[in-house]
Amino acid sequence: MRDPTDLVFNTKLEIDVNYEHIYENNEIRLPEILRGNRNLAISSIKGAVELLKEKIRRNYKIAIPHWYEERIQLLLPLNIMSDSTADLALVADRDKDRNIYKIRTVLTMDMAYIDARLITRPDTEWLNP
Asked: What's the pTM value of the predicted model, to 2 decimals?
């Protein structure tokens, strides 16, 4: 890691989500009710991402850093089924050339907890064992 700002979510940057890729490659990780229904799944994820953007603006600390393939990524809570409990963790890569966060995948909560512990103690607000 060369840039400590990678550890903190920059609320001024846009978030670019590849919804198709998330659904096609991670359908098994989605809540059961969304599996097998592409349109419902993508619509639900889009709505949850919009709510997440507001949540991050209010508290940038909900983004939890983790280490993957020699770089820092940020884990973001994705609340699809409930406002109070995250169902998945979005994985945000900072694209410094385009000055955005790219999201191409999601992790289950267990996967996110294990990965987050490699750098820091996860925020218990949304990432609990």
From this structure: 0.87
